[in-house]
């Protein structure tokens, strides 16, 4: 009945029960169990989404949003079936104002497409989670990535969201001003709410000037503790790195094996310096001195694009090297801790991987205290997935214990629900009350975030 | 009766009805009507605050928080009397972790005291609203100031808040990790909530390395439009200024008159460049070229502290020059708009001041699109205060019309309540529901933020 109503209200061409569409929206890039929705809608406007939510309210049907499917915690999986809103047709630029360094886009635009548009004007949207995620998905999960050390996460780069609430009201959470002290901060609240509080229909973002000059560098250390200490030293020195990444020795070996390379099999730090030329050069020289004092080896720098790619190759190819082992799947942790606790957490991560008997690496956005594991498992071998998942869980709990978070950038979704009480304590009740207030019927992405 | 209970629970020494204490907590630095509370409490711990809130709940008495009294919108004025919580005894450092570049403090510590502590370790807490406000007050209003162009506002610099809710629950809104995608963003929600959703009892802040080198500069332009265009040009060039401030010609004349100086009476831009030496020097040279292309005059730079102070003197002495005119009081707007709308808004501000027949200046954190007026009025001359207030109101409405905010950094308090509906539309209902949910009895700073 509700599917009939959707076709009636949106038109047949925006409503699909085609097997391909149902399958496409059944899973993301995580190992969480796929579930197909009953129907996929392809809205083209906010008005379409208002109609979908009205039908969902009337028939009490769950509504789950789907962007690029690049999520890593199952946020987009419609575990209670119902309607999936697929944003692929809502990928337009609503308003681009280069002189204000802001852009308003529909949620289905991907970050790479966005950058193609703004780059021509000397601007970048710097948040870079790796995958070519949609801006809506990135806002919904408060995504970040390699550049967070300089630009923060989506929440830091978002000025305004247009949101359709469960009751049909349409709100704007902010304005186009760069800062405001007016009203309660709803922009931050809806950013990272994973489609559980409302459906985002427009996102207004800050843009930044493309740095004049970029320089990449790499060096190695014998132990992980010194890598973390090195990252601390760089941050304390006031060098404003663009990126600062850790890849552990096991992961380097994996990339070497996968790509037939011969990189030194040591824990490796990758740097990107970006800004004005003199600044970048001075920063890289200072960084080199500081890192040498800590015993770094194999320091290599590159300014031209081809050489830069070469210097960063092991970082770039890492995920691919792990995930393309035949017949294997992968999972990983996403903890973020106060930077002084990084060495012990990274060591603990390595221990957990060794104990699991599985192959896995540690890599991270070490400047934020955020790091990941990638642990391979064979889904056909009994117990392997459970052992892989255990490494994630143990690491999340330890991160919370040392004053950090179970998820630095991937979000809660299905995988981190069980840690909400441990991490947030009494605040979980406040969060649940907000959910109850904004979605009393529980139609928005039910079964996510809170148990 | 409730005062008796307060004395009983907290001890007499923490509870005062002394006229001096009542008067001190009756007003802030704004012209909003002073109102004395019935009693002032001086808690020393979170436990004291829990006791105060329990008594407030039991006897249904309003509770208003008071920091340094440097607010500009009456947030701390106990307009429904009752209890004021004065934070002067809660000014301790709870946890300082230089290696994590974080610090946790009680809300009564002022930002200058905080900086004294962290500066010794090569660190700064950069948010600078001018006044030596308390960290609690700054968090409660989402304060910012001259450095927001680089570091953002309090919300961007706050990792975690400990909050006592109206129902007595104690929550932490975040963790000590630099970023997180876990749970709903309560840190951002309580930051800027002006004591209406809970009482902040601890604030955990990000710290930054002290820039190695600082350079200040000044230049003038013939018209305000070009000043705004110049600010845009600098931002688009990718120069990461530490401060970029506008002071209009009228204000320069006021400072000249007040201090017997002889500065060029033109619209003036002030810059602070900060970072590594080579970077700062390169940035200042590029800035000079860009500004000269736009027709700037009187370019002056300074690197040594005495000369820096001299270069920035008119900016520093501005507020003082206006507010110390004998017998006069002052008020001012606090709008923030998309930067392309700055020229017209600043021109409109000047028109409004001319039309009012009052003396006033325009100054601003032009890199954020945030600017203020300072309008002098004689409270004894009928109609002057009303005319001064009208300039604020007209400017706030215009800012909202062009996609900006009625308050960039001072907060809502009493003065900006009437603009909430115009600025936030339907979102105001969501905000009111949050207030209702978290403070159903309306004991927390009643009569503020929403009409």
Automatic annotation (TrEMBL), chains A, B:
InterPro entries, sorted: FAD-bd_oxidored_4_C (IPR004113), FAD-bd_PCMH (IPR016166), FAD-bd_PCMH-like_sf (IPR036318), FAD-bd_PCMH_sub2 (IPR016169), FAD-linked_Oxase-like_C (IPR016164), Oxid_FAD_bind_N (IPR006094), Vanillyl_alc_oxidase_C-sub2 (IPR016171)
Q: What class of enzyme is it?
A: oxidoreductase
GO-annotated molecular function: D-lactate dehydrogenase (cytochrome) activity
Tell me which residues make up the FAD-binding PCMH-type domain.
32-210
Please state the Enzyme Commission number of this protein: 1.1.2.4
Q: Tell whether rRNA-binding is among the UniProt keywords.
A: no
**Transit peptide keyword on record:** yes
Per UniProt, the keywords (alphabetical) are:
FAD, Flavoprotein, Oxidoreductase, Transit peptide
Origin: domain of life: Bacteria
Q: Which cofactor does it need?
A: FAD
The family database entries (PANTHER family) matched by this protein are listed as: D-LACTATE DEHYDROGENASE (PTHR11748), D-LACTATE DEHYDROGENASE, MITOCHONDRIAL-RELATED (PTHR11748:SF111)
State the family it belongs to. Belongs to the FAD-binding oxidoreductase/transferase type 4 family.
Q: What is this protein called?
A: D-lactate dehydrogenase (cytochrome)
Q: Which species is this UniProt entry from? A: Virgibacillus alimentarius
Could you read off the lineage of the organism from its UniProt record?
A: Bacteria, Bacillati, Bacillota, Bacilli, Bacillales
